[in-house]
C-alpha cells in the first residue's frame, strides 16, 4: 500500500475513529450514553407522546417446544424441515433468509416459503414474551411499529390493555397495498400496531428474505408507495429501535429514511438503538458518533425494556398512592357497547383517550361502574340518540377538561356537555351530578366549559390518575341517593 493509505502513525484512514468508538464503549457500562438526565428526558418525551417504539425480532424470545428461543431462529429451523432444506449445510444459527435462499437454489417455488410459515404459526400457541407485554403496559405509547411479521406485538397490546379482546388497530404495509395510518397520531382513537415490513400471510406480502427487504425498502422510499402519515410521525418523533437485526448499512439507511434528511443536519428528534449487536459494530458506532449525534446506543434489547418499564412505573405516583390504599389499578378493559345501569358517564376529547383509559381502569378497580364511548363515531341521528339517552340515565357525568378540549372549539363532546347541563336543570339544588375533572394544567379561569361546570369544584387528575380522595368521594356519592 502507498503512504496515502495510512496516517502518520501507520494506521488506515478511519481507524482512529473506530478505535475511539471502541475505547469509549469499553470505558462505559451497559448504559452507554445513558445517565439519569438521559432517562429523565426519555420519560418526559414518552409522557408527552413524542416517542415511537419500533420493535425488532431480537426482542422476541419465546417458549417453544425446544425451550426458550428467539422466535425467528425457531421459525427458520421449522421452515427448513417443511421445505426439505438440510440445516447442517447452512450457517448457524439459522436465519429465514438462508433457508429460503437454499430452497430457491434447489429450484423451489418462492411462494411456498410464505404458505409454510403461515402453517407453522397456525400450528402452535406462542405467548407474547414479557418484553412485549412490558412495552404494552406503557400506556403513553399509542403507536407501535414492528419490523416483524408475527402477531405477538398486537397480542401483547390486547392482552395488557383490553383483557385479550382484539381492540388494537393492526395495519400492515405491502408494496402492492399501501396502508397508511387512519389519521394523524393525535387523533388516533385506539392504539395502533403498524407492520412496516408486512404481516404474516399465505401470500408473499411480507419480508422473509434479504431480497424481500430490498423490495420493501425501495417501495417505502418511492414517491407513490410511501405511507405519508406514518413517515410524518417518524420524522417528527423520537424513535426507539428495540431489538432490531438491521445490519450496518441497513441501520444507516433506515435512520435516514425515517428522518427524511441528512443525519448530520441539525434536528430536534433523536433515536435510541437498543439491541445486542450495534454496540459491537465498530464501524456503525463510528458513523453514528461522527454523523448522527442525536443517536444513542444501549447494549441489550430486553434489559432496555425492563429498565424503561420499571422507571415508567415509578413515575406513576398517583397510581402508587392508590395501591397503598388497596386500590391498585387493574389493566384497562374496554367499555361495553351498551352502557350499564347507573354507570358513571365519562365525556372526553378523542385526543385524551389514553388518560381516560387510565381513569376508567382505576375507577373500575375501586368497584365503580363507568362507561364512555370507545369508538367515538361522532355522527348520525342514531348515535346522537344513544348518547343523549345514556346521559339521561347515568349516575354521574364526568367531563374531562384538558388542553385538547381547549383547542377544539367545535366537537361532539361539547354537545355531550350541553346534554348534561340540560339534565342538571331537573336535579335538586345541591345534589351532585356533574363532576368535572382536569387532567393537565388547564386553569379553571381559562377553561372553555359551561358555567355550570365552573359552579362546582373541578378535580385535578394529572394524566387521568384519580387521587384516593377523589375515588373515596365517588364511592360515597355512589352509595347514596341518586338523581
Domain tally: 3
Spans of at least 5 consecutive residues whose pLDDT stays below 50 are: 1-32, 320-329
Helix count, DSSP H or I runs of 4 or more residues: 19
User: Class by helix and strand content?
Assistant: alpha/beta
Q: What is the CATH T-level topology of the largest domain?
A: Rossmann fold
Helix percentage: 40-55%
What is the annotated CATH architecture of the largest domain? 3-Layer(aba) Sandwich
Q: Give the overall form.
A: elongated
- Determine and state the CATH class of the largest domain: Alpha Beta
Kindly report the spatial arrangement of strands forming the biggest sheet.
Answer: 5-6-4-1-7-8-9
**SS strand fraction:** 5-15%
Oligomer: single chain
Mean pLDDT: 86
Largest sheet: 7 strands, parallel
Number of strands: 14
Distance separating the two termini: 91 Å
CA gyration radius, whole angstroms? 26 Å
